[in-house]
Design goal:
13 helices, two-stranded antiparallel ribbon, alpha/beta
Length: about 500
């Protein structure tokens, strides 16, 4: 086979058993190809070197959405505009570099951001008293304050009938004509209490108000047919979405702060549970009960905290866990804890139905019942991120015998003290005792000195047949909605 002219042929000539001799021009062409390849390689190397040495200022800007890390910093954003890793309270935004943290502050965290809190909290151990007791049992109450660990009194300033118990003034108060003189000289009362070192709380019944609904029906809750709502006792309830109603309470709070009270405590801060509650009309017709109560509490806290007083509210124990109960009464335990200074669950053992928390007859097991309820409260409130403020839990405890129950026990020194110890064993330091007749179990109380020593040296938890109580995921109905247990059977 002959060789091709004008081309390169590097094939062996196997027939002759030798290698063909390469000509000079072929060597030149091979050298040219090698030099070209070398030039390309040098060019690539120089380009890479230039890119590596380029200043940081010339780099492309970082992505606006940082890459999530294993330990995200939670930031709430109700607007949902962030497109990063989702957390339990809205969106989590994670900075790309620790030294370049850009925090997106959620709307809730901006709530009351300019409020400078100069108030001093008190570890309250208190009792409830009526305005009648001020006249008839004042010496007894002061004796309890002086001789025992008690240091707090909760007194009716706006009672269950809607009456303000002393003469106070304000544009709406004067217009409504709701102030009475059941407490003839409120200034002397406050002065005396302060001389005895008492932390003073004004109890204000909020949305159950038969007096004001009777004189101002336009402020009350209505039914879908336009009529004013009445509960089974014929009592009217105020509309928590009515701005005039909320401003009425702001006026009351200002009077309370000016006279020297330390705290305003709202009871009945909820919707009614009787009658045609499915036909209630309030707000814009789209607002839920939970939204209505939460907005009302938030607004009142905004106005009242700058007055220098603390704000608290009494909530049903059942709303700690039960979403059904929350929707019925409008009390979201976790959300309200974001606004209040103190949240006061009414966890009287007598208020729970048989089997609640796995306890056969709750009224007969005061320690176990209080322990389980507050353990549940801790679990629910632990869902609030650490960077959010939350209310301190200060429960109402039972100091009365619920003889109207089928399964009950007599409450004396042992039972009341067990409730107090269960409060401590779940990490809480304050508590309030309730007795309608203002007749408290002194034997359950210690002197201040003994109480301080016992608290510092107590076993944790207090020995109990069942120190740890398993809380079922699904709980039975709490039973009856009883705000005032002494009124049962009236």
């Amino acid at each position: 086979m002959g060789r091709r002219k004008g081309g390169l042929d590097f094939t062996r000539d196997f027939r002759r058993g030798g290698r063909r001799k390469i000509k000079g021009k072929e060597i030149f062409l091979m050298l040219f190809i090698f030099l070209c390849a070398l030039a390309v390689g040098v060019g690539v190397f120089l380009a890479l070197k230039e890119r590596m040495n380029r200043p940081e200022a010339e780099e492309a800007p970082p992505s606006p959405v940082p890459t999530p890390t294993a330990a995200p910093t939670p930031v709430q954003d109700e607007g949902g505009e962030e497109s990063v890793v989702s957390g339990p309270y809205g969106m989590w935004s994670v900075p790309a570099k620790e030294d370049e943290v850009e925090v997106v502050v959620p709307e809730e965290e901006l709530w009351m951001e300019d409020f400078v809190d100069t108030r001093t909290k008190t570890r309250s151990k208190g009792i409830y008293m009526t305005s009648d007791a001020l006249r008839n049992r004042m010496d007894y109450v002061l004796e309890l304050m002086d001789d025992t660990e008690l240091n707090t009194v909760v007194i009716d300033i706006k009672d269950d009938d809607g009456r303000i118990t002393y003469e106070m003034t304000g544009e709406l108060i004067d217009s409504f004509g709701t102030a009475r003189s059941f407490i003839p000289n409120i200034g002397d009362f406050v002065k005396t209490m302060k001389e005895h070192g008492v932390y003073l709380i004004a109890r204000v019944v909020a949305f159950k108000d038969p007096l004001l609904v009777r004189t101002k029906p336009e402020l009350g809750l209505h039914l879908s047919d336009g009529s004013v709502y009445k509960d089974y006792k014929g009592l009217g309830w105020l509309d928590p979405t009515n701005q005039e109603v909320l401003d009425y309470y702001v006026e009351i709070a200002q009077n309370i702060a000016d006279i020297g009270f330390d705290e305003i405590n709202f009871d009945y801060v909820r919707f009614p549970t009787e009658g045609k509650i499915s036909e209630l009309v309030f707000g814009d017709g789209e607002t839920t009960k939970i939204e209505a109560i939460s907005a009302a509490v938030k607004y009142m806290c905004e106005k009242m905290k700058p007055m220098g007083i603390f704000v608290s509210a009494d909530l049903f124990g059942a709303v700690i866990r039960s979403a059904v109960d929350q929707r019925i009464v409008g009390q979201d335990y976790q959300e309200l804890a974001l606004y209040l200074d103190y949240i006061c669950p009414m966890i009287y053992p007598s208020h729970y139905s048989d089997g609640y928390y796995g306890i056969e007859h709750p009224d007969t097991e005061p320690y176990k019942m209080i322990y389980a309820a507050l353990q549940d409260s801790n679990k629910v409130l632990s869902g609030i991120p650490d960077y959010r403020k939350r209310a301190e839990v200060r429960p109402w405890l039972q100091d009365f015998t619920a003889s109207y129950l089928r399964h009950y026990i007599k409450y004396g020194p042992k039972q009341v003290r067990e409730e107090i110890e269960a409060t401590y064993d779940t990490g809480h330091t304050g508590w309030l005792l309730w007795n309608a007749a203002v007749n408290y179990t002194k034997g359950a109380l210690m002197t201040q000195e003994d109480a301080d020593y016992a608290y510092a040296h107590r076993p944790t938890p207090t020995p109990s047949p069942t120190p740890t109580i398993a809380i079922p995921t699904k709980l039975p109905n709490a039973g009856q909605y009883i705000d005032s247990p002494w009124k049962k059977g009236e």
